[in-house]
Amino acid sequence: MELPDNQLGDTRELHLAWLDFYRQTVERKLAGLSETDLRASRLPSGWSPLELVKHLVHIERRWIRWGFAAEPFERPWGDSGGVEDEPWRLEDDDTPDSLLTQLRAGGERSRQVVEAADDLAEHAAAGGRFSAEEKAPTLNWVLFHVLQEYARHVGQLDIARELADGGTGE
Asked: What's residue 132's pLDDT?
């Protein structure tokens, strides 16, 4: 997998290209791990690789769809049992395939939301994550935030993978 084109000058396309790259990197990091390694933690924090993927699914939902676009979500904190700041956890029907399908579908919906916005300086809509009384962030800020979440968590997943089977690299 190649890094996004280093000649991209359009900030919107650069954000989207990096998000695509990180989603694909997550998929590569999970490929070949046993069911035990996908569901068990080797880290003091206690999260498993699948819990981290579920967290990324919900991070993107919370910030781009529920946050920026104000799309309604019944459980925006579904990665943590429905409560903000609770530990990440899986439901019985969370599988590698189901979570990666959600990650991909979420990426497609994020792309639609970002491409439909008039300007990256546009502020998040009220009614989702943000109320009318709050100073809502810009789309540019939201995208940078989601990118840093992916970068940080992909790095953590890289360490988890190396501890599981010695796999390193992108």
From this structure: 87
Q: Is the CB of residue 157 less than 8 Å from the CB of residue 52?
A: yes
> Per-residue pLDDT for 169 more than 80?
no
Reference 147, options 116, 117, 118, 120; nearest CA is 120
Helix (H) and strand (E) counts for the chain? 5, 0
Residues 63, 124: Cα–Cα separation, whole Å: 9
| DSSP-derived secondary structure letter, 50 | H
Structurally, how many domains does the chain consist of?
A: 1
Half-sphere exposure of 160 (CA within 13 A, CB side): 31
**Predicted TM-score of the model (pTM):** 0.94
Q: Angle at CA 145, nearest 5°, toward 60 and 138?
A: 95
Q: 170 in a domain, yes or no?
A: no
